Amino acid sequence: MPHATGRLDAARAVIFAPLDGAGRAELVEQRLTDAIVSGVLRDGERLPSESDLSRSLGVAVVTAREALEGLRDKGLVRTRRGRDGGSFVTFDRESAGRMLELRLRDHSRIELRDLALHVGAIAGAAAEVAADRASDDDLESLTTIHEQADLTTAGGARRAVSRFQLEIAAISQSPRLVREEIRLQAEAGPLLWLCLREQEYRERSASARERVIAAIRDVAPEAAREATIRHITSAFEWLVHERLRLDAARRDEASLPLQGGSA
pTM score, two decimals? Predict the structure, then answer.
């Protein structure tokens, strides 16, 4: 695969790029959390030191320290002392899933729609331009990503979506679109693609890739854009329904003590 390693390196570069605006510990913690949950930072991986992290993100050392403390509290990072010490990623799928559900509950329907619109605008534009600029080698690369996708797990399906969309952005030959796609994958991807927990949506995702590839092969920019946005809209609709389900489950749990007391 001609671009896979470069895209992964680019995604990691964005994780440790300077933050926009004020460098609050919450922003550092959220960025690193997203990177761990999405698999950009893997279980057992050693994180940069507090001083290196603060330097790369453009924040104070105390801010980086507070962010790492927050990650330790979540169980996403463990720190050990000594010569071979440091902070290491500890990825627990169940804990990560619970955190994403809590994050979903914190988003209103309007916020989720805005997120989907933003992601769709970037990915749709990249697909539209890629349909005009793709070479035969580019099409082969997209087809390889699609054919090698592991749809047996949510993580495998998520990686396929990430690699495919990054490749589309690269084919567009727009550095700005590539940077924004990478940033959105790191910050929004873990939440947006929660639907890939379900096999039905993994198969829908594969079908969406087939439509995008066909549109690019036919040099049909509008069709490529439409298929991409439809894919993202489907993920948004799942998020809305899942949020309603989580809210209903929380209400049911809250009512249990009352029911038990009246028995």
Answer: 0.72
